[in-house]
């Protein structure tokens, strides 16, 4: 857990403090969400993932429950997990009726997919159906585990007309994130960026959560996030304070336009929230 005074520039400290004060908490639709949600700040922005083991309706159901509890909910809509246009229309109708105004559209890992093969195809279908959602899409500063960099970069260009923001997958290297943002701006991708950061979770709890999501999901998670597992097994575990300090210049850069910290909590909200409050205290003037 964070225990030391942060030493960054005044502008960097201001940027970190502003983003930490209003960050996004990502939750997985599991049975431990209701008690975990008790530790969320009032009215917090909460992103609800989609899992092949649970199906899209589990994401929708949790999103509706959290919305009723007063949170600002951002459900994931997974292209490969959505079976057809009828299910997509149902999803859009349910979240619209609940007053949910944002969604995060991902390609997803379901195999075989339903009617939609990737994020772009479901974004185009959503446009044809009609909606009033503000849409976020994912990005991969360190590449994707099976899609080429060229295909990933082209997909982001193709999705830009449908999206209002980009959120990165977890990355532990500040320079890799900074370089990726520079490359996107040079390529004409000007959408605001949310930086994906890991929350504070014990390795044994992370493994338990991965197992509960499903064997296939667990293997994909470990394949894509071996660096996270390595960091979590170090003495004292992992917390993202050094990552934010290393990113402070980028976070304060208007051209980079980082508008959010997207925290992958692994449903470990209590420990993550304790870290957030401690870091805010360390940044106090």
Task: Give a topology summary.
Layout: H1 10-20, E1 24-27, H2 33-37, E2 45-48, H3 56-68, E3 72-78, H4 85-97, E4 102-106, H5 119-129, E5 134-139, H6 149-159, E6 165-168, H7 174-186, E7 193-198, H8 203-213, H9 215-224, H10 226-232, H11 241-246, H12 248-251, E8 258-264, H13 269-283
Parallel strand pairs: 1-2, 1-8, 2-3, 3-4, 4-5, 5-6, 6-7, 7-8
Tell me what the structure shows:
There is one protein chain. With 285 residues, the protein is α/β, with parallel strands linked by helices. Helices cover 46% and strands 15% of the residues. It has helices spanning 10-20, 33-37, 56-68, 85-97, 119-129, 149-159, 174-186, 203-213, 215-224, 226-232, 241-246, 248-251, 269-283; strands at residues 24-27, 45-48, 72-78, 102-106, 134-139, 165-168, 193-198, 258-264. It has an eight-stranded parallel barrel with strand order 1-2-3-4-5-6-7-8. Helix 6 (149-159) links the parallel strand 5 and strand 6 (165-168). Helix 8 (203-213) packs across helix 9. The longest helix is centred in the last third of the chain and has 15 residues, at 269-283. Mean pLDDT is 87; it is low at 212-219.
Q: Count all strands and give the number.
A: 8
Gross morphology is globular
What is the share of helical residues? 40-55%
> Uncertain spans, ≥5 residues at pLDDT below 50?
212-219
Q: Please state roughly what percent of the residues sit in beta strands, choosing from under 5%, 5-15%, 15-25%, 25-35%, 35-45% or over 45%.
A: 15-25%
Helix/strand order, N-terminal first:
HEHEHEHEHEHEHEHHHHHEH
Mean pLDDT: 87
How many helices in DSSP terms? 13
Major beta-sheet overview: 8 strands, parallel, barrel
Structural class: alpha/beta
Distance between the amino and carboxyl termini: 21 Å
Neighbour order of strands in the largest sheet: 1-2-3-4-5-6-7-8
Specify Rg, calculated over alpha carbons: 18 Å
């Amino acid at each position: 857990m964070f225990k030391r005074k942060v030493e960054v520039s005044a502008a960097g400290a201001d940027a970190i403090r502003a983003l930490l004060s209003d960050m996004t908490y990502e939750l997985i639709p599991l049975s431990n969400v209701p008690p975990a949600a008790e530790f969320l700040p009032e009215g917090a922005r909460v992103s609800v993932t989609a899992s092949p083991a649970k199906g899209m309706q589990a994401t929708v159901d949790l999103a509706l429950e959290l919305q009723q509890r007063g949170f600002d909910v951002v459900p994931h809509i997974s292209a490969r997990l959505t079976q057809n246009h009828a299910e997509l229309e149902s999803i859009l109708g349910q979240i619209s009726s609940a007053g949910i105004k944002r969604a995060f559209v991902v390609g997803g890992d379901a195999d075989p997919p339903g009617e939609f093969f990737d994020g772009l195809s479901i974004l185009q279908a959503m446009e044809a159906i009609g909606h009033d959602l503000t849409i976020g899409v994912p990005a991969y500063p360190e590449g994707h585990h099976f899609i080429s960099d060229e295909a990933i970069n082209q997909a982001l260009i193709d999705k830009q007309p449908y999206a209002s923001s980009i959120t990165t997958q977890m990355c532990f290297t500040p320079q890799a994130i900074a370089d990726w943002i520079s490359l996107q701006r040079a390529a004409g991708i000007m959408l605001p960026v949310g930086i994906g950061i890991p929350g504070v979770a014990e390795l044994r709890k992370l493994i338990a959560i991965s197992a509960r999501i499903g064997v296939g999901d667990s293997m994909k998670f470990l394949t894509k996030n071996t660096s996270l597992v390595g960091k979590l097994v170090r003495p004292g575990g992992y917390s993202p304070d050094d990552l934010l300090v290393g990113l402070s210049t980028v976070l304060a850069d208007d051209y980079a336009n980082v508008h959010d910290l997207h925290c992958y909590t692994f449903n470990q909200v209590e420990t993550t929230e304790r870290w957030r409050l401690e870091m805010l205290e360390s940044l106090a003037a």
